[in-house]
Amino acid sequence: MKIAYKKRQLNVNLILGLVWLTWFFIGILTKEEPGWIDYGWILISLMYLGLYFYQKTYKYVSIENGIINVNGPLGKKLNLNEIKRIKKFAGDYILKTDKNELTINTKIIDPDSQTELDAELEKLNVEWN
Question: What is the pTM of this model?
Answer without folding.
Answer: 0.84
